[in-house]
Specification:
Elements: H1 10-20, H2 23-30, H3 37-48, E1 66-68, E2 71-73, E3 77-79, H4 92-103, E4 107-109, H5 117-123, E5 128-132, H6 139-151, E6 155-159, H7 169-174, H8 184-191, H9 194-203, H10 229-238, E7 242-248, H11 251-259, E8 264-267, H12 281-292, E9 298-300, H13 307-315, E10 320-323, H14 325-357
Parallel strand pairs: 3-10, 4-5, 5-6, 6-7, 7-8, 8-9, 9-10
Antiparallel strand pairs: 1-2
Helix pairs in contact: 1-14, 4-5, 4-14, 11-12, 13-14
Length: 368
């Protein structure tokens, strides 16, 4: 699509997506908890960290390659799990899966993905991790865990920072629901965004595809508050592959997770969508790194908007990071071409920043 050529930054993608998407969909993707001060606070923390330029170093040959769980990845950033991605554009889940194949990076597949988890890992050629919530009494949760294992997933990501779904006023004002409901307010919204509406109508209403199985009807408002450390132990016993716990913001929790046999943690505030008063994940990252030691895998998401943000996060203690919203905005703005353009922008931003601070490889970030 021609719009892809106009994406030169994440803000370009967001601006274009805002024109195209219905208000309800845009605010579902873009919104955060409360008055959104948590999102602003984390963004301010990232902006406040300077990068120190160095000169007269040969940085002509640079590589963004790294490893994650022993596997090669062509970028130090992957795709965060995001629910109902096909709202941003028909087929978005599979666009992300194809991107994961191209760069050998993890595609986080959400519990509430719009495409069956089996189809996504097939298209991603194994470059996919399955993200799980513990809901209700856990019966349906462990059915999904078994299903992911049978589909060939090797890494399970337990999202632990949603004991109750956070209040996001922008969603509430628009009456956003999952499963998708259309009332008079939504009808007017869609009518004012005909390109999105007609395309989505032709492709079929986005569904939560992983719940089309007997005995498990998804309820987004169902409490997830029963999960505890015994739940984690059950999950660890049930899952033969790598287990990541996402949503960690406390050093003591990080240390306990390490002691309980979790293979990696993901420092995250859920994109500031859960607790408005949560601390900035970026500021907690160095403290968590210090607590778990230099060799334990620490991943990061929340608030990242550029390749420079990636570099700052790696310098602050992360081993690998994940992008979320901006990839959906790029899809909304320009389809698969927009997604690929956004990925190239992030790559260029990071490579140029590496040159500016005088490093050629990512293993040099620990020496800055």
């Amino acid at each position: 699509m021609r719009a892809a050529a106009h994406i030169h930054s994440s803000e370009d993608a967001r601006r274009l997506a805002r024109r195209y998407l219905p208000w309800m969909v845009f605010d579902y993707i873009d919104g955060a908890a409360g008055a959104e001060n948590g999102a602003a606070r984390n963004r301010a923390a990232l902006d406040a960290m300077p990068l120190r330029p160095r000169i007269l170093r040969d940085v002509s040959e640079r590589s963004l390659a790294t490893t994650i769980f022993g596997a090669s990845a062509e970028r130090p950033f992957g795709i965060a799990p995001m629910g109902m991605c096909n709202l941003s554009g028909p087929g978005a889940d599979l666009m992300l899966a194809r991107l994961a194949v191209r760069y050998k990076v993890p595609h986080g597949v959400s519990t509430v993905a719009s495409t069956p988890l089996e189809k996504i890992i097939e298209v991603a050629e194994g470059n996919a991790w399955f993200q799980i919530y513990f809901s209700g009494d856990g019966t349906g949760t462990f059915k999904l865990v078994d299903r992911a294992r049978d589909a060939g997933y090797k890494t399970l990501v337990l999202t632990a920072d949603v004991p109750e779904v956070g209040r996001r006023p922008r969603e509430l004002r628009h009456g956003f629901k999952m499963p998708f409901k259309i009332g008079p307010k939504q009808f007017v919204d869609f009518a004012l965004h005909p390109r999105w509406s007609l395309t989505s109508l032709f492709s079929g209403k986005p569904q939560m595809a992983n719940f089309e199985m007997p005995g498990y009807a998804f309820d987004r408002t169902e409490s997830r508050a029963r999960a505890d450390w015994d739940t984690l132990s059950r999950m660890r016993d049930a899952w033969p592959g790598k287990l990541v716990v996402k949503g960690v913001l406390d050093p003591e929790d990080a240390a306990m997770l390490k002691a309980k046999g979790v293979d990696a943690i993901q420092v995250s505030s859920h994109g500031a969508r859960q607790l408005e008063s949560a601390p900035s994940p970026f500021l907690m990252l160095p403290k968590i790194r210090e607590e778990v030691g230099p060799d334990y895998p620490v991943f990061f998401d929340s608030g990242l908007r550029s390749g420079e943000d990636v570099l700052k996060t790696l310098l602050s203690g992360a081993d690998f990071v994940f992008f979320g919203r901006l990839l959906q905005f790029a899809i909304a703005a320009g389809g698969e071409a927009g997604l690929n353009q956004m990925w190239d922008v992030l790559t260029d931003e990071m490579s140029i920043a590496m040159a500016q601070i005088g490093i050629c490889k990512l293993d040099q970030t620990s020496r800055q």
